[in-house]
Amino acid sequence: MRQDYDYIIAGMGCAGLSLAVQLKQSKVPFSKILLIDKTPKNTNDRTWCFWTKTEEQWYAPIIHKKWNHLTFAADKTMSFDISPYRYCLIRGIDFYNYCLNELSGDDRFEIVYANILKIKGDGHLAELQTTQTTYTAKLIFNSAIQKVDAKQNHVNFVQHFKGWKVAFEKEVVDAESPVFMDFGIDQKNDCRFVYTIPYSKKVALIEYTGFSNHAISVEEYDAEIMAYIHKKYKDIAYEILEEEQGQIPMFESAFINPFGPKVVNIGTAGNASKASSGYTFYFIQKAVKDIVMQLQNQNDKISLVKKPARFHYYDKVLLDVLNKKEVPAKTVFEKLFQNNKINDLLDFLNEESTVVQDLKIINSLPKKHFIFSGIKKLWC
């Protein structure tokens, strides 16, 4: 069987569904779009957090919580007012339901659940194959299949994590401030911290997180989360409401497109995951918005927005420093938060800072280690 579409969106995660909704809300002319994934999106399998100054976005109705304060903890605890930024949370299930509901009343969109065997885009039309059907389109937007140009001298970490959403018996949670990083745990000669998102004074998502070459066992995550809760909240009784677990690439090596010019990589496959932090949602939205604008201008060839080269370089240097472990990761991040204005730092992490801001932030870091890695990463 063969079926033809204007566009195919391969993968119905954050990038695929964001693109579909923004296409629906745009002036891009199309008759039929296919969305394809191997399984339905019907569970609360992840939580997206990000900071923004602009809340009038298409996803504004599903921002579940937002705050204007953040906390960082290492040898001492620091709290910050991040205004005019807001730190925002979107639950996975709310995102999926909202997007699918937006698309359900529009017969220009078709959803198929099937395993994708192959995609290619080196002919007149792009082509996607499943076990039973071959689909064709003018363009395929791919987040489902990821290819990496891995190089031997590159540092390719993952941000790995497991979180428990817990309900405490008493009001022990600071509901006004997420804990961005808490390094008050055994680092195990690694980069490990706990990330806490408060839902109320009794309910919080407590996530044990690492930046390293690979994830750890489920048993170790659970033991570390339990130990952290016991240390921080003593013997207050609690119930585990939900669990989430995942890995996000923090790759120095680039994700590449070997599929041909009629295939456009999006999401992590389109290099939207920030290598030095693993943050993805905000960068996906910027990339998708640009793609939609290109389609609105009836561009035949889509070009992905390339981040300023200096930010890719900064990411490479930080990964190299963390990988060598000559200075504790805890020290690196503590200096970043202790010696910089919080809004400068958030601008920097969103890749929206000026060169002057960048230089101030770089100057706050342990110079010996960053200078050596900085010189090294000019050449590899």
Low-confidence spans: none
Largest sheet: 7 strands, mixed
Rg, rounded, reads 21 Å
Distance between the termini: 47 Å
Question: Could you characterize what this model shows?
Answer:
By secondary structure, the chain is of the alpha/beta class. The protein has three domains: 2-66 and 92-149 and 254-296, FAD/NAD(P)-binding domain (3-Layer(bba) Sandwich); 156-251, D-Amino Acid Oxidase, subunit A, domain 2 (D-Amino Acid Oxidase, Chain A, domain 2, 2-Layer Sandwich); 309-376, no CATH class. The protein has nine helices and 19 strands. Strands 1, 2, 8, 9, 10, 11 and 19 form a seven-stranded mixed sheet that branches. A seven-stranded mixed sheet has the order 6-5-14-15-16-13-17, sandwiched between helices. Strands 3-7-4 form a three-stranded antiparallel sheet. The protein is globular and about 60 Å long. The mean pLDDT is 95.
Task: Name some characteristics of this structure.
380 residues; alpha/beta; FAD/NAD(P)-binding domain; D-Amino Acid Oxidase, Chain A, domain 2; 3 domains; 7-stranded mixed beta sheet
Give a short synopsis of this structure.
The protein is of the alpha/beta class and 380 residues long. 29% of the residues lie in helices and 31% in strands. 37% of the residues are buried.
